Amino acid sequence: MPTRTYRNRKRILVTGGAGFLGSHLCERLLRDGGEVLCVDNFFTGSRENVEHLLQNQRFELIRHDVTFPLYVEVDEIYNLACPASPIHYQHDPVQTTKTSVHGAINMLGLAKRVRAKILQASTSEVYGDPQVHPQAEEYWGHVNPIGLRSCYDEGKRCAETLFFDYYRQHSLRIKVARIFNTYGPRMHPDDGRVVSNFIVQALSHQPITIYGKGTQTRSFCYVDDLTDALVRLMDTADDFVGPVNIGNPRAFTILELAQKITQLTGSRSQLVFRPLPSDDPVQRQPDISLAKKKLGWQPCIELDQGLERTIDYFRQRTPEAA
Ligand code: NAD
Ligand code: UDP
User: What is the CATH number of the domain that holds 15?
Assistant: First the structure.
């Protein structure tokens, strides 16, 4: 890669940059020589997630809510701002939809004004509770428009619509990534997502809460694999816009995940069964053929390896962990 100087250095905006995925992405972009502007309203993210980046001259942190317009000069925008865990996005569902929809309009407007390339962090939730397995990008999904998850699912679907309309109507350079369940260090310990929940419960020898029978499946992608795919997607030729699935195609049942985490942590935790939340997808598994072909990408970190790194992170933050 040619050395970047102040003359040809890319100025990159990461919205939601102080969140779990955003903070790893900021790190990666700085490592690649970019100038990174991290914008976040700290709803679920925190300064702590990016504190180690603050001394870097090429990093800047701004508190801002993307539902309001933003005027900055940048070359690329990664639009990640949006709470991602069911507990957080259901806390204020109206704000969740606003963040996806108004946030997309504001960031697309910014991209149009400064002629920036813009990438949307979309989600496997656009497939809803899918009836096609594994899910390929051509599948239109099976989504409840009025349920508890709808603020997130429909907000993200509308954001995709806006991206494609700006592409067709204004010739904007867009990229849409459909991200499947991703995990790793800096997940919020209380955000209720399955990997962080199970690890925190296992480390403190508390009961591991399985929702439903635990036979539902998910596939888990380690955060470093994910950020690599996002950067590759942003760097593809302008005629490739996606949407493209990014995730790990190896599916596990939730029970298998619980057993793995109990074993890796050496926990004395028991499994307890709790009611399944409404509209909880039964199966989810990405078809990543398109990502392989267009990005030359596939995940390379196995679940055990990624879990060990994530467990190490939480072990340092769990006082009860032996
Ligand atoms: P996260 O909650 O850790 O990060 C989201 C960030 O956005 C937080 O820092 C939060 O404070 C910020 N934010 C929320 N509303 C905002 C607003 N109105 N203005 C400015 N900032 C705001 O979640 P994450 O897992 O890092 O997810 C990042 C993105 O990736 C989200 O858009 C999410 O939908 C998408 N995604 C994540 C996953 C996953 O498994 N982690 C899967 C699919 C999609
Ligand atoms: N889940 C669980 N116990 C928990 C948290 C989650 O069994 O403590 C289940 C949840 O019902 C879902 C799966 O794990 O079937 C993944 O949940 P998560 O919230 O991580 O992400 P989702 O894929 O549902 O958005």
Answer: 3.40.50.720
Residues 249 and 286: their CA atoms lie apart, in Å, by 5
Does pLDDT of 250 surpass 90?
yes
> Is residue 86 in some structural domain?
yes
Tell me the whole-structure pTM to 2 decimals.
Answer: 0.95
Identify which ligand lies nearest to the alpha carbon of 44. 1
- Ligand 1 binding pocket (C-beta < 6 A) is 15-16, 18-22, 40-45, 65-67, 80-84, 88, 99, 103, 121, 123, 179, 181-182, 188
Ligand that lies nearest to the alpha carbon of residue 278, given by its number in the listed order: 2
**Domain annotation covers residue 167:** yes
In terms of residue numbers, what domain contains 107?
11-183+222-246
Residue 157 lies in a domain: yes
pLDDT tens, residue by residue, 134-176: 999 999 999 999 999 999 999 999 999 999 999 999 999 999 9
Nearest-CA neighbor of 222 among 187, 258, 261, 178?
Answer: 187
Residue 266 CA to ligand 1 center (angstroms) comes to 31
Catalogue the active-site residues.
152
